[in-house]
Amino acid sequence: MSIEINHVSKSYGSFQILKNINFTIQTGELIALLGPSGSGKTSLLRIVAGLEQADEGQIVFNGQDLTNARIKDRKVGFVFQHYALFQNMTVFHNIAYGLNVLPRKYRPSKKEIKEKVEKLLSLIRLEPYGKRYPSQLSGGQRQRVALARALAIEPKILLLDEPFGALDAKVRKELRDWLRHLHESVGITSIFVTHDQEEAFEVADRVVIMHDGKIEQIGTPEHVYDHPANPFIYDFIGSANRFEGKIAGGKFVDGDFETDAPEYPGEVTQGLGFVRPYHFIIEKQKSGNQSLKAKIKHVQPVGPIVRLNLERSDTHDLLHVEMNREEFSRLDLHADELVHLKVKKVQIFSTGQ
Amino acid sequence: MNVIKKSRRKRVIPGFGLTLGLSTLYLSLIVLIPLSMLFVYSARMGWHAFWSDVLDPRVVASYMLSFRTSLLAGLVNLIFGVLIAWVLTRYTFPWKRLIDGFVDLPFALPTSVAGITLTTLYSANGWIGRLLPFQVSFTPLGITVALIFVGLPFVVRMVQPVLQDFEHEVEEASVSLGASPFQTFRKVIFPQLLPAALSGFALAFARSLGEYGSVVFISGNMPFKTEIAPLMIVTKLEQFDYSAATAIAVVMLLLSFALLLVINVLQWWYGRRFANN
User: Fold this and answer.
1) Which parts of the chain span the membrane according to its record (chain B) (predicted)?
2) Second label for A184, Cα 20 to 30 Å away, from A247, A287, B172, B243?
């Protein structure tokens, strides 16, 4: 089922948490709503679910306006960050809950319910745990039960609010792969909220980056990663070196750092430059004039790559550089060594004035 | 299966032996020794005298009355206590704090004051009694009313914290799965507050069994009709029949102990599955 979010706004008192949100989700897509806390992503999810009402705008499911429909009538499966399992019921009855509360004439028979729950238990790989209570399960298992419970009502849309937020790194990674796999096999339109960019980029078909109640960028993970639309996204998706300087005469200058900025030929403004750690060239001897002197502070080999922390000689700011092991040993670099940095690729943004 | 393991873990705050010793001493002095005196006294009188005192039809009628009215009052308090706790935790409204304070009033008020007030209100010419087509004061119904008054705070105060800590998300989960508000309450919320409500019920019930001050005025104390067991004890004491008074007390003690045990076992059986891991 496709979801259209049309000009949705929402305020809590004088604080506007959502400002005119507008986008469409295609049938079968897995969308990540990504943003820092307070960006409005959870509010948007809750409005789509019907747990909250938008002040303005519409929520349209498959061409049907459901803005004012009750959550019951929306056929959405909702998964909460803290599982929200029913502590007084076994895993089996938690999963069967959505079927057991159906009006008698729509309710499947006991046998059908049992078969369905058993199928879901095998889907979440917890077949032997049907008789346990939620308090007897680990966090990852509880969240899988919550997912099965949401899937039991055969929702047209699955909404997940920071589903892996309360879990440790390893379980998180496992569940993430499993969610992706599940989505491919069930094919249900899904939206999940996260503040973890790695999670969003790894799992989602498209990523919606939110900030301050607005959408900053929508796109596939590759697209967002390779072409961040603005400085906020560069900062947020992380691991880019940031240069603050001036744009003048088609060049961006920050201290000793200078690079061409052909996008801004005539302007004289403040600007920001972003360089990813693996877009640097390190040289022992200075060559050309667009290079930056820096001192190696720390060398840290991580798997096949080597991470270097360097201190700029002009501003003493830290720079993060990555290179592969072969290049590192070819260059024969050591801590406290002075080197020259050149950039292979830089993204310049004008910040006005 | 429970395996009792010896814990060799070092505790952050030491003093287990000392605090346990003090607790035991205190409980012995305050509760166990006085109660055991009951048994010692009644044991002195011999079986025959004991049974004839205890099985005196007038006394038996008073046990029945006490248990019946206390049970009824406890049930009424169970239902309305949950309701009041619900209103006080779920909604905000003007004067909420004040109303919350009213709940404790039956604790604070001397019970005889409550008894006199209730008797006056519910008597045939009283403000409330006048409006009712049936008699309340000087009937078992009147006793129940007094016991409801006395037992009100227990259920409310037991259930309130449970409702306060109840995760809102759990209700939202229930609704998102298609449950109606009533189904959500019946299947999800109520089962989780039942243990606390039962505790409150047990406390209110126990308190009602022993209640004297508020009941003697409204009951009218008619033999076989509105005499409660504690009144029988006082009557025997006034006649200097100490052994009969103790014998009745022992029976009351054993009966209420048995009932509380049943409620506790029920609660344990119910809560063991999910309350604590």
Assistant:
1) 12-41, 61-89, 101-122, 134-156, 188-206, 242-266
2) B172
> Any idea what the CATH number is for the domain that residue A201 is in?
3.40.50.300
Is A150 an 8 Å CB contact of chain B?
yes
Q: Please give the ipTM for the structure prediction.
A: 0.80
In a domain, B29, yes or no: no
* Model pLDDT for residues A275-301, shown as the tens digit of each residue: 988 888 888 888 877 788 899 999 999
B25 belongs to a structural domain: no
pLDDT in tens, A122-137: 988 899 999 999 988 9
Do A191 and A255 reside in the same domain of the chain? no
User: What mean pLDDT comes out for the span A237-242?
Assistant: 83
Range of the domain at A196: 3-235
The residue written with tokens 């379980």 in the block is: A171
Q: Do A51 and B176 touch (CB under 8 A)?
A: yes
Residue A34 is predicted with a pLDDT of 93
- Which residue in the block uniquely carries the two structure tokens 């960019």? A197
Contact A86 B176 (CB under 8 A): no
Question: Among all chains, which residue has been given the structure tokens 């900053």?
Answer: A216
The tally of domains found in chain B comes to 1
Would the CB atoms of B176 and A49 count as touching at under 8 Å?
Answer: yes
Instruction: State which residues form the domain around B126.
Output: 38-271
pLDDT on residue B1 = 43
Q: Confirm or reject contact between A72 and chain B (CB < 8 A).
A: yes
The domain boundary residue, chosen from A235, A262, A296:
A235
Domain count, chain A: 2
The verdict on A206 and A320 lying in the same domain is no
Q: Tell me, what amino acid is at A165?
A: G
pLDDT band with cut points at 50, 70 and 90 for residue B277: very low
Q: Strand locations in A13-134, DSSP E?
A: 15-25, 30-34, 56-61, 64-65, 76-79
Query: How close, in Å, is residue A88 to chain B by CA atoms?
Result: 6
B6 within a domain of the structure (yes/no): no
Last residue of a domain, one of A235, A262, A278: A235
**Contact residues on chain B for A134, CB-CB shorter than 8 A:** 274
- Spatial distance between the Cα atoms of B59 and B246, rounded to a whole number of angstroms: 13
> Residues near A203 by Cβ (< 8 Å), separated by ≥ 6?
A30, A32, A176, A179, A180, A183, A192
Same domain flag for A243 and A231: no
pTM of the predicted model as reported, rounded to 2 decimal places: 0.77
Q: Is residue B45 in a domain?
A: yes
Give, in order, the Cα–Cα distances in Å from A93 to each of A109, A139, A337, B148.
14, 18, 65, 37
Chain B neighbors of A86, CB-CB under 8 A: 170, 173-174, 187-188
Residue with tokens 């039942």: B194
Chain B residues touching chain A at CB-CB below 8 Å: 167, 169-170, 172-180, 183, 187-188, 191-192, 273-274, 276-277
